[in-house]
Amino acid sequence: xxxxxxxxxxxxxxxxxxxxxxxxxxxxxxxxxxxxxxxxxxxxxxxxxxxxxxxxxxxxxxxxxxxxxxxxxxxxxxxxxxxxxxxxxxxxxxxxxxxxxxxxxxxxxxxxxxxxxxxxxxxxxxxxxxxxxxxxxxxxxxxxxxxxxxxxxxxxxxxxxxxxxxxxxxxxxxxxxxxxxxxxxxxxxxxxxxxxxxxxxxxxxxxxxxxxxxxxxxxxxxxxxxxxxxxxxxxxxxxxxxxxxxxxxxxxxxxxxxxxxxxxxxxxxxxxxxxxxxxxxxxxxxxxxxxxxxxxxxxxxxxxxxxxxxxxxxxxxxxxxxxxxxxxxxxxxxxxxxxxxxxxxxxxxxxxxxxxxxxxxxxxxxxxxxxxxxxxxxxxxxxxxxxxxxxxxxxxxxxxxxxxxxxxxxxxxxxxxxxxxxx
Length: 423
Prior knowledge:
The chain has four helices and 31 strands. The chain is mostly beta strands and 423 residues long. It has one domain: Single-stranded right-handed beta-helix, Pectin lyase-like (Pectate Lyase C-like), CATH 2.160.20.10.
């Protein structure tokens, strides 16, 4: 009798320990259970070796119609909460989602493997408050987004609601991919297509590389900048092809240590620094290098643009453009300190933007406008330290000659087409 009681007691004790161990395994470091942090049992089941989360196993449907937001967010929460290397797998298929907020900090390094296509919902009522963008990554270190898949913003369905050409303070449509306070990141190989607004926007980021990416939207699509950045440092954009309805790349205020190499741009508005001076207390831009790029049939080439009625002082300096090929580009080289898009701003005012130490070196090819070089600087704050070396861009038309339009610019020119020397 005593033996049976002892045996029963042992079985009960073992069962209790098994239950306690199971709960402990799925509790996080703070003692929270799976449902407290978003790790549903389905996410645990979807995880492969090394923390890999396949969104189909979490309930996503790649039929191009069913909303898969919940499955993708579940994968993010699980991956972000796991230590070591974690991977979110977007397999082949067309997965529709609404706005998604990928917030960190994460415990480990997260990779989003994009093999299929994500499609952004066109129900604009979903995009509000903290979810104003389609995909926003916040406060995350050690991020990789890679693959051969596509982020399709499905912009054609909402571009007609963009009023920014008429309204200075227009309602901004959702950006496709926003990196907000992201450090040590790589975006590689993917395609971004038909954004509702900007395709990629970086804010307060450090050590980000965009490599081998394709960005595409029609030339007439409104405000579909390829890559915009602001208040960011040590950003590299390498071997990337961009064709949109706005700037291929725009380097905004507060950008420092920017490297743009091997980019093909067109259609679009070119590769720009700015616009600068629209908002109060913007930070300086410095150390921007654009090298070994090709621009085709764009409305501008390499451009620096600032508002004449800037609200506070800002300086753009140490800007280098080297080995750039222009093919049928309007305004191949342009500094515009009287920038006023669509004439919806004040066209005259007290300039607060300083542009200095700018080098244009080995810029060649053809211009679709007679003005191959345009340096329109402020009479109150002239552009200084502008160097032009081996600039040889010629007007492709026959109805006029190649020329430069220069005002209030202090230029040193060597080896340039004589019409472009700006001296």
